[in-house]
Every structure is written in C-alpha cells, then in structure tokens.
Design a protein that fits this description.
Layout (H helix, E strand, L loop, with lengths): L7 H15 L1 H8 L30 E7 L7 H10 L8 E6 L12 H12 L3 E7 L22 H18 L3 E5 L8 H6 L5 H18 L2 E5 L10 H4 L3 E4 L27 E5 L19 H5 L3 H5 L7 E5 L3 H6 L4
Parallel strand pairs: 1-2, 1-8, 2-3, 3-4, 4-5, 5-6, 7-8
Length: 335
C-alpha cells in the first residue's frame, strides 16, 4: 500500500499534541511582547528610609528651594550666578533644579552648568530634585516635526515620553527625586489651551485618564507643581496624578494655613504635601494693586511652622520656596 505524503494535517496534529502535553500557557506567554520595565524612582518618603535629607533643627522636614536654570546662550552668566548662590542656601536641605522642557533642551543633563549645580548641591549637603518644564516654553527652539500640538495635554503618549525621559535623566544624574513644573511658560501653546481655559469636567477627565495611562506605563515622578487652584475648572486638578508629592502654590497667597480655602471639583481632593512660600528680600504685593497677598521675607519663611500646617493638612512633609529674585533673596537669608 502506498504511503501518504507527510501533510499539513500531520503538522497541525503534532502541534496540538505538543500544546496538550506541555501546556498552552508557556506558549502564550512566549508569544506576547515583553513588558517594558523602565527605571522608576522609589516612592518618595521623608526620613531615614526615604529621601536623603540633612536633618535641620533636629527635624527631617523637606525645605526645598526652587532653582530655575534657563540654559540659553544669553543666560550663561545669570545661570552661573544662580548656581553660585546655592552656597548661601544653608537653611534648606533640598534644591529643585529646574531646566526647560526635554524637547527644548534634550542635552540639559550633560550641560556644564547643570553638572556644576549638581556638584554644588552635593557639596552643600542638599538633596537634589531634578525637574523639567512639562510643556515647551519656546516653540522656536524645537524642531517643527517634534513640536507637540495644543492638544498634547490629552495625549497619554506625550506624558509617558516626558516621564520616561526625566526619570532616566534623574537616574543618570544621581538625583534623589524627579519632578515636573507643569505651569506653561514663555510662548507655550498650552497657555491658551489649558492655563486660561475653563476646562469642562469631561475635559478634566480626559486629562486625568491620559495621565493615569501614562503613569501605569512609565511610573510617576516624585513631585508635581502646580496642584491646586481657586477655580474648579483649572488644569492643575487632573495634572496632580503625575507626581507622588504635591507642591502647592495657592499657599503663596496666604500666611495662615487656616485661611487657605480651596474647593476642588468633584472627583478630586486637595492634598498639600509641600507648603509653597513666595520669598523676596522685602515683602511686596503678589498680583494687582487690589491684591491682599504679599510675598514673605526670609525671616517670615523661617517662622513658618510645619506642625501648624499639619493641623490642617496632616499629609504635609515640609515646604518649597520660590523666588523671582533668588540671588538677592538668598543673600538676605542670613541677615
């Protein structure tokens, strides 16, 4: 009798038998794309098991100084002066080193001024939080093909790329944490798209969902700013999902924790991890002539009592300080 040729039926039969004998789960797993396992910063905690902070006055509370580096050819002298002023930052135990967005200055981690800032912080015993603007401030500095559109705040891929980039930079620089400044600056298209816009609940939900997807893929950053607003339609509410610790800025406008009144929209909460203080050498008004808010002098910042803040916000772990005249403010800090 003539033997039948070895055909496809035999192949399929042998394949099915193999799956039955050895199980389909290993085969299924082998066919899947391997999950991406990016580096992520550890959960941000304060104290011996978390951020390496120099205890000040016997307490491990965060005292972080916001340090903006422009990293442009015309700002080299100013940036170096800012870095040198960190030698006067004795009252602080952390520095928030902020660079323009990753699309504007992808070379920032290798910039000599950034490296000098990192070395100065280490020499002064300051923890370093490596930060970036979340949004492009100067579109003319970015290749047009790479420039994100005005609707990028709805795009999970944009957030994921930004997170993955800054966390990788943080690891390379040896930073203690990473953070985003999500305020649109300069000529950012996001100024009109989200900062001045009154977002509907549906739009806020779209942003929150995009951020949730991005964080699930790339992990969160350590700190995020801004994180609250007097307006329930503000973009700051959904943007909080990007970070583990929230840097509040509505506290700029009050000197007493009990007077800070913020009403979050439905589905959001107001958690204040770092109390924000706007410091200048001499107290002056914030906002227009009718404003009742004033900046704090260095002496007034020093007088802030974190325990008093915790009476209203138990989650508070310290404060962060911003100044639009950092060099003069630090020079007045010890006086």
């Amino acid at each position: 009798m003539k033997r039948k040729p070895f055909g496809w039926g035999c192949c399929l039969g042998a394949f099915a038998t193999t799956l039955l004998l050895f199980g389909w789960v290993p085969f299924y797993a082998a066919c899947q794309k391997p999950e991406r396992d990016p580096w992520q910063p550890p959960p941000v905690k304060v104290g011996a098991d978390g951020l390496k902070l120099t205890p000040l006055d016997g307490r491990p509370d965060i005292r972080a100084l916001y340090v903006q580096l422009r990293l442009r050819q015309d700002t080299i002298a100013d940036d170096i002066a800012v870095v040198n002023s960190l030698r006067d930052a004795d009252w602080f135990n952390a520095a928030m080193i902020v660079a323009p967005s990753w699309l504007e200055r992808p070379d920032a981690p290798n910039n000599p001024i950034v490296r000098r800032a990192m070395a100065t912080c280490r020499a002064e015993g300051l923890a370093v939080y490596w930060g970036r603007w979340l949004w492009v401030g100067w579109p003319s500095h970015v290749n047009e093909r790479l420039l994100p559109g005005p609707a990028s705040h709805f795009d999970a891929a944009y957030y994921a790329a930004a997170i993955a980039t800054i966390n990788a930079e943080g690891r390379m620089l040896g930073a203690d944490a990473t953070f985003f400044d999500a305020e649109p600056y300069g000529d950012s298209v996001q100024k009109g798209a989200i900062k001045r816009a009154k977002l509907t609940p549906a739009q806020q939900l779209l942003i929150a969902d995009a951020i949730e997807d991005a964080v699930r893929y790339a992990g969160p950053v350590g700190l995020i700013y801004p994180t609250s607003s007097m307006r329930s339609s503000h973009y700051a509410w959904p943007i909080t999902g990007l970070g583990q610790l929230r840097c509040d800025h509505k506290s700029f406008y009050t000197r007493e924790p009990g007077r800070l009144v913020v009403r979050p929209p439905t589905g959001h909460d107001h958690r204040l991890h770092l109390w924000g203080a706007f410091a200048t050498p001499n107290s002056r008004q914030i906002g227009g002539p009718e404003s009742k808010s004033w900046t704090l002098t260095p002496a007034e910042v020093k007088a802030l009592d974190v325990d008093a803040i915790r009476a209203f916000y138990p989650e508070c772990v310290g404060m962060w300080v911003y100044s639009d005249d950092l060099i003069a403010t630090l020079a007045a800090w010890g006086s």
